[in-house]
Specification:
The protein is an alpha+beta fold. The protein has a single domain, classed as Alpha-Beta Complex (Peptide Deformylase), CATH 3.90.45.10. Helix content is 22%, strand content 23%. Strand 6 and strand 7 form a beta hairpin. The structure holds zinc ion. The site of zinc ion has 5 residues, from helix 2.
């Protein structure tokens, strides 16, 4: 397994809709293992493939390090699609490994139904609520080219803009490996 550099705010691949996975080969399995390792090394609880420069519809989640969720198993979502959202929404403070040290309250539906494939490309549909629903929506957004800071009102962006600019310029300190430039796309 190996750690992969994490793409940062400003990197083009984070703004692109990710491509569907058509087959899961040994390289894809290796990629998923590396995604888990890269995410855990950065103390993250979710990671989308484009966050390590891979243009594929895959994200991983592991919330078992969060108090109260110790029994939740790590999960891989391939070609995910959120098919239902609850009417009830709430605010929750989010962060992102591609936007280090920036946090903002984001309003999202409390529950979702999400369809996805496992590593055998068998389709599943599950209901997720609470933290799992929150993380899954954040990661699903990544695959659509959406970042959580997009939900912050323009009038409230103030300091946020300076922080985003600093990240884009790599003029902040990173505690994990990050991509070197905005055109970074890893080729499989
Ligand atoms: Zn993120």
């Amino acid at each position: 397994m190996s750690l992969l550099p994490i793409t940062l705010y400003g990197d083009k691949i984070l703004r692109k809709k990710a491509r569907k996975v058509k087959e899961v080969d040994i390289k894809t399995i290796e990629l998923i293992k590396n995604m888990f390792e890269t995410m855990r090394n950065a103390s993250g609880i979710g990671l989308a493939a484009n966050q390590i420069g891979i243009d594929k519809q895959i994200f991983v989640i592991d919330i078992s390090q969060v108090e109260g969720y110790e029994k939740t198993k790590p999960m891989v979502f391939i070609n995910p699609e959120i098919v239902e959202y609850s009417k009830e929404k709430d605010f929750f403070e989010e962060g992102c490994l591609s936007i280090p040290d920036v946090r903002a309250d984001v309003l999202r539906p409390q529950q979702i139904k999400i369809k996805y494939c496992d590593t055998d490309l068998n389709e599943h549909i599950i209901e997720a609520d609470d933290l799992l629903a929150r993380v899954a929506q954040h990661e699903y957004d990544h695959l659509l080219g959406i970042l959580f800071t997009d939900y912050v009102e323009e009038t409230e962006k103030g300091n946020l803009k300076n922080n985003l600019h600093a990240i884009r310029k790599r003029s902040v300190e990173f505690t994990y490996p990050v991509s070197e430039n905005i055109d970074y796309i890893l080729r499989l």
